[in-house]
Amino acid sequence: MRHPLLLASVLALSLAACSTTSPDVVQRGDAQRLSSVQDATIISSRPVTVEGSQSGVGAATGAVIGGVAGSSVGGRRESVAVGVLGAVVGAVAGNAAERFGTRETAVELIVQLKNGERRAIVQAQGEENFKPGDRVVLVSSGGTTRVSRTPN
């Protein structure tokens, strides 16, 4: 293995690609489940970044790859020391790769409900772009809420 950090980064990014919080993707557990819907109007919209996760998968993967790669360097004594150092460096690099690889571009929406109450919702940037004055619905199910345009 000549490029253990690259391999750890690719693996962490691949695992991160399996997860999404896009408002255009409905989780399997939310399918065929009754959701509550509230009418609202967009007051403001601004782009934000949702920080990536640190589940430990990236760090563990990086540690294994770094340890294996490091232990193949040098003689018997050196391979143990370099293996341990490689595992530490790999864990740090794998953790960073996971964190940056799972960041998402999102939008913070401030909405006003018909009763005058205001709510703030952060959701991943989907296909829809919202601007002040847009009529929307808040769809809530299982503790999560997503915003989408009011159907015609």
TrEMBL record:
Residues 1-19 form the signal peptide. The keyword Cell membrane does not apply. Residues 58-97 form the Glycine zipper 2TM domain. The keyword Lyase does not apply. One of its GO terms (cellular component) is outer membrane. Keywords: Signal. This is Glycine zipper 2TM domain-containing protein. It comes from Aquariibacter albus. The lineage of its organism: Bacteria, Pseudomonadati, Pseudomonadota, Betaproteobacteria, Burkholderiales.
